[in-house]
Amino acid sequence: MAGDCAVCGKPLPRHGRGRGAVYCSGACRQRAYRTRRSPSGEEAVTGLVAEIERQVKGLALRPPGTFYEDVSTLSTQVGRLRRIARLAAENVTPDAVTESPGLDEIAFAGLVEPHRGELRVHCYRMTGSYDDADDLVQETLLKAWRHRDDLEDLDSVRSWLYRVATNACLDFLRRAQRRPLQYEPVPGIDSGDGEPPARFPWLQPYPDEADPDVAAVSRETIELVFLAAIQFLPPRQRAVLILRDVLDWPADETAKLLGMTVPAVNSALQRARPTLRERLPGRRADWSLGQAGAEERETLRRYMAAAEHADVSAMAELLSADAVLTMPPNPVWFTGRDAIIRQVGPVFDPGSPRYFGEWRYLPTSANRMPAAAGYVRRPGTAVYRAQLLDVLRVENGHVAEITTFEPHLLPAFGLPLTLPMSDRAGVRRRG
């Protein structure tokens, strides 16, 4: 028997062999994660160790599929335990006197580590940068440790951490003073006849697999177009909108977290919503909680195949007539299929002085959108080196937008920075 969902009581889907599901969907899993009573830090660590021990004892080498699934789950749990240990080590102070009895470094790390994933997504929404979000989460956890005496109730640790994280983000945004820019013509480059898009040099992709607990994040609240839209909001309005409309916090809790009155929170929200509506595409209502759909995955496969085969005609067929290509943080941009093809065509042509080399791609997912990591083997070399990460926005089977990022974040996606030539067949299978 597959059993019933532990949250909503609906029948669980049957997955054949392997570990049985506990929740019927990512939304139920996230709801359970957010609403269950948090155990003490010591209990969390002890329970995690016991769970790892149980999983190790239960490993079976066959069938291979089940073995792989169980090892993957075990790897996730061990990674979480490693992060707890690292956080505890970072929080060790030379002063042996602790003013919070029972909440030492290990207990504290076990208490806050389960919230790391959603805090990172929160900081990412606030800043639009994965690197900055990662730094701000570390800053949040260190500040939380230093001010742990302010935590009056262990059951309120989540809201307390959100307060620390939000204030850290607001302080960062005040220092950075980031403002959306407009792309400008680049001398010597034909960017097309379309209107220059908005430019966000700090914008980075978010790897969907970085935080397993974020599996239920709504696509409409993390897709790049949403991230770009909220960058137009002043930092405090941005925080109010995220807390109220994305995280569904009540107005009184939002006011308490931000040190505002309830009328001020409601006023900020009413000012933020029209700005957001103006910047979002009309199809927002069609977005879903899930990952890229079958049509998007097929479009991604064709996109990678066209690039690997240097098939410029196939690439042109995939692009919508008004497709847009941007490359943050670089100032280069292109609007319209013709302008994009004029730019990328010579890159694939061995007879062109702009020929770049032979390409290979690995499929991945960023911001709940289809993405492809591109590797290039320069003439005369024997290694494919990471060159870019293309995140695609697909509409009606065509690529409407390509956002090309630099490759330094690929390890966060679980992807290598180089591919040997022997990986060619393997890359095609994975694609």
Describe what is shown at a glance.
The strands form two sheets. Strands 3, 4, 5, 6, 7, 8 and 9 form a seven-stranded mixed sheet that branches. This protein has a two-stranded antiparallel ribbon with strand order 1-2. The protein has helices at about 25-35, 40-55, 65-90, 105-110, 115-125, 130-145, 155-175, 225-230, 235-245, 250-260, 260-280, 295-310, 310-320, 335-350, 425-430, and strands at about 180, 200, 320-325, 335, 360-365, 370-375, 385-395, 400-405, 420. By secondary structure, the chain is of the alpha+beta class.
What would your notes on this structure say?
There is one protein chain. The protein is α+β, with helices and mostly antiparallel strands and 431 residues long. Helix content is 46%, strand content 13%. The protein has helices at residues 26-35, 41-57, 64-90, 105-112, 116-127, 130-146, 157-176, 224-230, 235-246, 251-258, 262-279, 294-308, 312-318, 337-348, 424-430; strands spanning 181-182, 198-199, 319-326, 333-335, 358-366, 369-377, 383-395, 398-405, 418-420. The strands form two sheets. Strands 3, 4, 5, 6, 7, 8 and 9 form a seven-stranded mixed beta sheet that branches. A hairpin with a 5-residue loop joins strand 6 and strand 7. The two termini are 35 Å apart. The model is unreliable at 15-19, 33-38, 92-102, 284-290 and 424-431 (pLDDT under 50).
Lay out the secondary structure:
Blueprint: H1 26-35, H2 41-57, H3 64-90, H4 105-112, H5 116-127, H6 130-146, H7 157-176, E1 181-182, E2 198-199, H8 224-230, H9 235-246, H10 251-258, H11 262-279, H12 294-308, H13 312-318, E3 319-326, E4 333-335, H14 337-348, E5 358-366, E6 369-377, E7 383-395, E8 398-405, E9 418-420, H15 424-430
Parallel strand pairs: 3-8
Antiparallel strand pairs: 1-2, 3-4, 5-6, 6-7, 7-8, 7-9
